């Protein structure tokens, strides 16, 4: 029993030494545990000592650099996929904004045409000899003509598909 206890203590010491050696080696490849599982222990120990001597040449090298490189590469890949997803999301949001802006402009144009028609009808009833109409004034129209000057075809603004942002107001002609 004493021999068994002594042998056990010796094996525990060797196991602790082997664990320490593994830590000193740095990160082991993923297949290291399966690759050397069926190798005889004396042969593995000889190989370990030989490799340990060879590793002494590289004492100043960062032993965790490979693991860090792999981690950073995985993180970069995850971040690139995430960026692609965000870019697609941003593009779809921009498309939605464009569609909503177009619908808003169309609704304003449609409402203006209806109001303009009703204004013309009411104006003819109030002033039988005259005609009246509502005119959308645009920033570009104001800059292109002198004050008080009229431009043909400006009654409903339906011909131009500029955004509502280019409207400066409504006038009466």
UniProtKB/TrEMBL annotation:
- Gene3D superfamilies attached here? P-loop containing nucleotide triphosphate hydrolases
Biased composition of type Basic and acidic residues is found at: 138-148
Annotated region Disordered: the residues are 138-173
Highest taxon, organism lineage: Eukaryota
Provide the organism lineage as a comma list.
Answer: Eukaryota, Fungi, Dikarya, Ascomycota, Pezizomycotina
- Give the SUPFAM superfamilies listed for this entry: P-loop containing nucleoside triphosphate hydrolases
The protein, known as? Structural maintenance of chromosomes protein 3
Q: Which InterPro entries match?
A: P-loop_NTPase (IPR027417)
This protein's species is: Cryomyces antarcticus
Q: Which PANTHER family match?
A: STRUCTURAL MAINTENANCE OF CHROMOSOMES PROTEIN 3
